[in-house]
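**Reference record**
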Amino acid sequence: MTLIKKPLALAGALLSLLGPAALAEVDANVAKTIKTRLEAGNPKATYGEVRESPIKGLYEVEVDGGNNTLFVSEDGNYFVFGDLYQVKSGGGLANLSETRRAGHRTKVMESLNVEDMIVFSPKGETKAHIYVFTDVDCGYCRKLHQDVPELNKRGIEVRYLAFPRAGLQSLGYRKLATAWCAEDSNKTLTALKNRENVPLKVCDNNPVAAQYKLGNEAIDVRGTPTIVMENGNVVPGYLPPASLVEALGI
C-alpha cells in the first residue's frame, strides 16, 4: 500500500547538507528501532532495509518496493517523505533518490523473462531496447505502436508489457490477454491497436495480471504508454522516434 501517492521534493536548507554517497552500515539496534516505529505508525506499508543517508542523523528506508523513500530520525519518531537532491560541485542538482530508483528498475526489468513480453525486434543489429507498458485503447499507445517500424529501423527493440488501465476486470484486460494468448501475438496486438475486430479469447496462465501488478508496484506506472529505458529511467508518455534515439544515446 503506497504511503503517499505523490513524492515531495526536499529543498532549501537540506540541499546544503548533502554529502558523498559512500555510506556506512547501520547499527542493528538503530535499524530495529526505526523499523519498529515505522511499522507501528503504518503497519499496512512495506518497509525495506534501513540505510545511512548522505544527511548526518537521517536514515533512508524504502517503502512499498522502492518506489518511495523515507528519511527517518535515529529514534524513528520523525521522517521526511520525498526525493533527496544533491548540490553538485560544478553546479546544478542531482536527484539521488531517482538515481537509486532507476537502478532498482533496471534490476527488476532485467530479471523478467522476455518470452513473456510481446517483442518487436529489428531485422538488423539491435542497438538498444525499451520496455513499454501498454494498453490497446490508449491513443498515445497506438501512436507509439505506429512508430515501431521506424524504431526497429533505427535498431531499437520494443518489448511490450501489458497494463490494462481500467483494471483486471475490464474489457481492456480481455483485449490484452487475447494478444498475449494468440498464436501470433505481434500480429494480434497490432490488429487490436488498429481497432480491428478481433475475437476475444483469454487463456489460462497469461502474464497480463502479473505485468499489471509489476507496473503498479515495482515501476509505479501511472498511465500508458510508460517507457522504461535500459538504464531504468522512465518516460511517462509518448516520445517520437528521434527523441527516443537521442535519449538512448544511439
In short: Residues 96-110 form the longest helix (15 residues). The helical segments are 28-41, 96-110, 139-146, 148-153, 171-181, 185-193, 208-219, 241-248. DSSP finds eight helices and eleven strands in the chain.
